[in-house]
Design brief:
CATH architecture: 3-Layer(aba) Sandwich
Radius of gyration: 13 Å
Structural class: alpha/beta
Distance between the termini: 29 Å
CATH class: Alpha Beta
Oligomer: single chain
Helix content: 25-40%
Low-confidence stretches: 75-81
Strand content: 15-25%
Number of helices: 3
Largest sheet: 5 strands, mixed
Number of domains: 1
Number of strands: 5
Order of helices and strands: EHEHEHEE
Length: 105
Amino acid sequence: MGQIFISHSSANGPDAKSVQQWLLQQGWSDVFLDLDPAQGLAPGQRWREELKKAGERCAAVIVLVSPAWQTRNGASPSFSLPPNSASKYFPCLWSLAGCRYSPSN
């Protein structure tokens, strides 16, 4: 499972892939993205269970908060971690223009 977990709406799959590629270019080799067959979900896996496990095992979660994500998760999303989780959440406000914040800024 990845050290970094990318959470996204299915409508933002290509954007999530771009974030994954950027992280890989920055030297982060252990990135979980459900769309990636090598480091995400394999065909036939029980995706809900696997996503839950991946989220629990990662050290950081990047959440691409887009209009599509908010529609799926509610207008006032709250990020909750399991009680024993060491994961840190990093919400990234995502729009048609991409992420409004970049760690390089």
